[in-house]
Design goal:
Layout lengths: L13 E3 L9 H9 L3 E5 L5 H14 L5 E5 L9 H17 L15 H10 L4 E5 L5 H9 L3 E6 L2 H9 L4 E5 L5 E2 L14 H12 L7 E5 L5 H10 L3 E4 L13 H7 L7 E4 L7 E4 L2 H6 L9 H16 L21 H8 L13
Parallel strand pairs: 1-2, 1-9, 2-3, 3-4, 4-5, 5-6, 6-8, 8-9
Antiparallel strand pairs: 7-11, 10-11
Bound molecules: flavin mononucleotide.
Family: Belongs to the nitronate monooxygenase family. NMO class I subfamily.
InterPro entries: Aldolase_TIM, NMO
Protein name: Propionate 3-nitronate monooxygenase
């Protein structure tokens, strides 16, 4: 077995979350790294070529180590075909409203994840994190041999134990407050409602004293320094933050998504399958309110079905028809430099980390 390479361990224990669909940019990762944190580019929904470009650009902007996140899932369940067809019929007026035609669905789509893994094996980054599924011991071993640490996103303590036995170096423990998709291991399961703090405590208990224990990164609903400190006390080594960075200058969040985040008439976030077929937390827009109850558990086919609608809505500035993923702390997201977010979250003093080592 190859020795496990060191996972990301920036001076400030704040990792910017991978955020597919635009928000993640090389500029955002570099800005957070420059402020003493670290984080991930999002490889999900990108072509391998686009991911390679983003990695190259990030290296131009920073010499600090960073990670890449991949979507890692099983093919869509063919049994869901009828339900997806019914949902497509229900959504037809939404598509018609923006003059878009229903797309052909690809039931074999795996997000070209194995090609992106090959890219990362031939041109390694510091860490690769996986979501929607666990990488398995063989992939972990190949990444370790390439000099790359491995993180797995988990949303319950069973998944945490399973990932630990596969030899991952970090568990991204994602609580119910988290924006974006829940890191459940199957499309059909309903995620639990444990808060990030409760889940971190449960995972720490479930892992017990067995060595080697992966690092724990807490994700979900982090909006201030006191929450970071509480999560570190609960057993996390770092926090992974998404929503708070969505409106920052360096994020690539679409204008429509940003408008949804700042619309005073949108008053809550909910976990919904309406846009993608997988449970994800986002703003309760008119689209979500109308279709949440009818959306089938079918990923990525429902995601494919709504893609042209979301693209047209983003172009038209229709913020009720874009998937405005956001965590429960969305009201705290503000425009400004990403470094300001890192500074506001930095524990005083950063526990267990050398100061001034950026
Ligand atoms: C807009 C958006 C997109 C996201 N995309 C991804 C992704 O591509 N991969 C992933 O592992 N997590 C993704 N997440 C979830 C984050 O990794 C993280 O769990 C979450 O942002 C933490 O909660 P917070 O948003 O309350 O900070 C996304 C979150 C948001 C808000």
């Amino acid at each position: 077995m190859s020795p496990a390479p060191a996972p990301l361990a920036p001076p400030v224990p704040v990792l910017v979350a991978p955020m597919a669909g635009g928000p993640s940019t090389p500029e955002l990762v570099a800005a957070v790294a420059g402020a003493g944190g670290s984080g991930y580019l999002s490889g999900g929904n990108l072509t391998p070529e686009a991911l390679a470009d983003q990695i190259a650009r990030t290296r131009e902007l920073t010499d600090r180590p960073f990670g890449v996140n991949l979507f890692w899932y099983e093919p869509a369940e063919p049994a869901a075909r009828a339900a997806v067809q019914e949902y497509a019929e229900l959504l037809a007026p939404e598509l018609a409203a923006l003059d878009v035609t229903a797309p052909e669905l690809d039931w074999e789509d795996l997000d070209r994840a194995s090609e992106k893994l090959d890219l990362l094996l031939s041109d390694p980054v510091a860490e690769v994190s996986f979501t929607f599924g666990l990488p398995g011991p063989e992939v972990v071993e190949r990444l370790h041999a390439a000099g790359t640490a491995v993180a797995a996103t988990v949303a319950d303590h069973h998944a945490a134990r399973c990932a630990a036995t596969q030899g991952v170096d970090r568990l991204c423990v994602q609580g119910a407050e988290a924006g974006g998709h829940r890191g459940t291991l199957t499309t059909g399961e309903e995620p639990n409602r444990l808060t990030t703090t409760q889940l971190v405590q449960q995972v720490v208990r479930a892992l017990g004293p067995t060595a080697p224990v992966p690092l724990i990164t807490a994700a979900g609903g982090v909006t201030d320094r006191a929450e970071v400190e509480a999560l570190l006390t609960a057993g996390a080594e770092s926090v992974q933050v998404g929503t708070l960075f969505l409106l920052t200058d360096e994020a690539g969040t679409s204008t429509a998504h940003a408008a949804a985040l700042q619309d005073p008439e949108i008053t809550e976030t909910v976990v919904t399958r309406a846009f993608s077929g997988r449970p994800a937390r986002g703003l309760r827009s008119r689209f979500v309110a109308a279709h949440d109850a009818h959306a089938p558990a079918a990923y990525p086919t429902v995601n494919q079905l709504t893609r042209p609608l979301r693209t047209a809505a983003a172009r038209a500035g229709d913020h009720h028809r874009v998937s405005a993923w956001a965590g429960t702390g969305w009201r705290q997201a503000r425009p400004g430099p990403a470094a300001g977010v890192v500074e506001a979250l930095t524990p005083t003093p950063a526990p267990g980390r050398p100061s001034g080592s950026r």
